[in-house]
Each structure stands twice: as C-alpha cells, then as structure tokens.
From TrEMBL:
Keywords: Signal. Residues 1-24 form the signal peptide. It comes from the Eukaryota. It comes from Ceratitis capitata (Mediterranean fruit fly). This is (Mediterranean fruit fly) hypothetical protein. InterPro entries: DUF1091. The keyword Signal applies. The keyword Electron transport does not apply.
Length: 183
C-alpha cells in the first residue's frame, strides 16, 4: 500500500473501532457567513446561541435580493484543523436544484443537508421564492454515523453560487470529542 492509503486505512479502522465504544461530544464553536455579492444576498443573522446547557445552536438568515432562484450550485468541503484548517476527505460540488430532486445521487451532500433541511426552509426543489432561514440547528451524533471522523476540530465550508457566480460563503466550525472532558 502507498503511505497515504495505509495511513487512511489505519485511521478508518481506528474510527470504526472507536465509534463502537465512544459516544462523541459534538458542538459548534464558530460560524462565519460572507456575502460574495451584496446585490444578491445579505446575511441578516449568522450566529451561534446556547438554547440549553451543553448545546450550541446555529442560526442563519440569508436575505435573497434577486428572486426567484432557479439556478443554484453548491460546493461543500470538510476541513480538519492541523496547523490551520486543511482539506479532509470531502469536497463536493453539485447543481443544488438537481440535488434537491435526486438527493441519493450525492451521498455526502445528502448527509449534510439531511441535518440542515430539518431546521430550515430549504426543504423543497427549485425555484426558491423566499429568504433562506436555518433556525437552531444543533449537531448530533447521528449526523456522523455515515461519515465517522476522528476527534478534533473541523470546519464545513459551504459555497453557494447562482448562474455560475459565487454568491455566499458559510463556514461552520465544530469540535468532536470522545467525551465532554477531553480538551
């Protein structure tokens, strides 16, 4: 085996072993929303709140200034912190309207958006004739059952485009620990 494949294989075996015995502790640590085209989208809310002890919830309100949205693309990447944030396993792009019609074709996006869609108003196919709202999304262990990752600090980056032009950049930072006492 090549060196990087061997390391990845060992990491996956370790993950599978640990996932059988560990109950990971997950929480958001930060969020950053950036409008890349202020004539198209403005973030009126982009923050984390504490709805109850030991829970951090993410809320986003994106005001869309050019409706309806009939052509949208997304790029979702996962990064792991290691001397800065480095790409980690996934970087997937797709036509969002097509994804919403055929979600099983895009497994990584489906895992991410399954969690997001339950807490948002983007749970339908195009066109979108309204602002985008995510309210009180909380990370839960079941979100990571299909993509087990080792403990550490991570970032999801979601880039959103319309008509092949990037419009928004959302970075959600989170941590995974084997228990609440790990630091």
């Amino acid at each position: 085996m090549h060196g990087s494949r061997k390391i990845l294989s060992l990491a996956l075996v370790q993950l599978l072993f640990l996932s059988k015995f560990a109950n990971p502790y997950l929480k958001f640590t930060n969020i950053k929303c950036s409008s890349l085209d202020k004539s198209y989208v403005v973030f009126q809310k982009c923050r984390l709140t504490v709805p109850k002890r030991e829970q951090i919830a993410m809320s986003i309100y994106a005001k869309l200034l050019k409706l309806p949205v009939v052509n949208a693309s997304v790029n979702l990447s996962l990064f792991k912190k290691a001397s800065g944030f480095r790409p980690f396993l996934y970087n997937v792009s797709a036509n969002f309207c097509e994804f919403m019609e055929h979600r099983k074709r895009f497994p990584f996006l489906e895992i991410f958006f399954d969690a997001l869609l339950k807490e948002s108003n983007i749970n339908h196919t195009c066109p979108f004739n309204h602002d985008i709202i995510v309210k009180d999304m909380i990370l839960q262990e079941k979100m990571f059952r299909r993509i087990p990752v080792p403990p550490g600090d991570y970032m999801f980056q979601l880039l959103v485009a319309a008509f092949n032009d990037w419009k928004a950049d959302v970075k959600a930072y989170f941590t995974i620990r084997l228990n609440r006492d790990d630091h």
